[in-house]
Amino acid sequence: MEQLHKSDSPLTHGGVNVPDMFKEADELQQKADALREQAIQSLIARRQALLAECQTINEQLQKNGYLDSNGTHNRVNGHAPKTHGPSQKRFATMKLADIGVTLLKEYESLHGTEIEQMAKAGGFKSKTDQFQNLLQVTFKRHGGFRNVGKNTWRLTEHFKANGGQSLT
């Protein structure tokens, strides 16, 4: 056990007043608790402001037709989906390459999953579980499509310049 200095009283240790040391520790703890509470309140207020901002943005997107009432995205590349009559089965008798040409003429560029969703919504039927593989093979064989990266497709300039005639 550590020996007390001759100058130490039972309430001092190494020249430090022990009760003052505990008092200072308590004050620092109270300051830390107050700062923590301020930080929590600040974060709660910021979260509420962000949620309100998100709600405003969501309402604006619904108003402008980018989202339906369920919050589901219903635009492709910033454009409202084009409707073609009440049946929505305009692709039922078309080949996948022709569907791709039609959609890419309308939208300029689309991701493969967007093409898949729109083709199926338009009545295209496929027996494959690997639609994206079918899409890539079909588009490459056709020759009028270009994958511009990450499964996003466009019509080739050559295809457009030849009046929509494929290279094959």
Which secondary structure elements does this structure contain, and how are they paired or packed?
Elements (H helix, E strand, L loop, with lengths): L11 E2 L2 E2 H46 L32 H12 L1 E3 H10 L9 H12 L2 E5 L2 E4 L1 H5 L7
Antiparallel strand pairs: 1-2, 3-5, 4-5
Could you please describe the fold and organization of this structure?
This protein has 168 residues and is mostly helical. Among the domains are: 12-62; 96-161, Orthogonal Bundle (Arc Repressor Mutant, subunit A), CATH 1.10.10. 51% of the residues lie in helices and 10% in strands. It has a three-stranded antiparallel beta sheet. Strands 1-2 form a two-stranded antiparallel ribbon. A hairpin with a 2-residue loop joins strand 1 (12-13) and strand 2. It is elongated. The protein starts with 11 loop residues before the first strand and ends in a 7-residue tail after the last helix.
CATH-assigned fold name of the domain at 96-161:
Arc Repressor Mutant, subunit A
Cα Rg: 34 Å
Mean pLDDT: 80
Read across the widest sheet, the strand sequence of neighbours is 3-5-4
